[in-house]
Design a protein that fits this description.
Layout lengths: L4 H11 L1 H10 L12 H11 L4 H12 L10 H6 L2 H6 L4 H15 L5 H4 L4 H9 L6 H11 L11 H11 L5 H8 L6 H12 L16
Helix pairs in contact: 1-2, 2-13, 3-4, 3-7, 9-10, 11-13
Length: 216
């Protein structure tokens, strides 16, 4: 089922009075799937941006993108061909150098085939992505929401979502409580998540930083 924010809003408004009040306060849903670049560069940006500010992450990513000999978009082969020392000089840590090489190897060898992957279920996509070093479940879930536009993703490990549930519903965000509170939102939990993030700040999350309450 494709993402349809208008249908999602109607469903959430009927299903949950707390969510209905939040949506009225926030206004229209501006969740628009699709990130800069293709699937590979989206995940590459996510790895580069882990634990960094958006500005620092973009600076490093542009240095890495410049490694392409013809100035075109960075390809898995470019990452694999780059010496580790070159990637570290661009600003990657030792660990992230290993991570981006592993991502590139997965794509280059076909172990991670995005053309086939995007036709699979959410959980199958998550399983395939977390097999790459440096990619955790949160990053895979954000890829599902903000790159692929999957409508029913509920990232219960996200600190921002947990804080929003605590604030709005007055419950401790344990795993059972988080599962229970979100059950009426199906199959539009991605839309509900966007509103919960907006209840904390005028920002929406993106791939790259898993430590902030509202990843930006």
């Amino acid at each position: 089922m494709p993402l349809d924010t208008a249908t999602g809003i109607k469903h959430l408004s009927r299903a949950d009075p707390v969510m209905r009040a939040l949506m009225k306060q926030v206004g229209p849903c501006l969740l628009k799937p699709g990130a800069r670049g293709d699937h590979f560069t989206t995940i590459l940006r996510a790895i580069v941006g882990q634990q960094l500010s958006a500005k620092a992450a973009e600076t490093i990513f542009q240095r890495i993108a410049a490694l392409h000999p013809n100035g075109r978009k960075i390809l898995p082969a470019d990452i694999l061909a780059a010496p580790d020392a070159t990637l570290r000089a661009a600003g990657l840590s030792n660990a992230k150098t290993i991570y981006v090489k592993d991502l590139a190897a997965h794509v280059e060898t076909g172990r991670l085939n995005f053309a086939r992957l995007i036709r699979r279920s959410d959980e199958e996509i998550i399983d395939a992505l977390v097999a790459v070093k440096g990619i955790g479940r949160w990053t895979a879930e954000m890829f599902l929401i903000f790159r692929l536009g999957r409508p029913d993703v509920w990232a219960i490990d996200d600190l921002g979502l947990r804080n929003a549930v605590r604030n709005l519903y007055g419950i401790e965000p344990t795993k059972p409580h988080l599962i229970e509170v979100a059950e009426p939102w199906r199959p539009w939990r991605s839309v509900a998540s966007w509103y919960l993030w907006r209840s904390l700040a005028n920002t929406a999350p993106s791939l790259g930083n898993e430590t902030k309450a509202v990843p930006v």
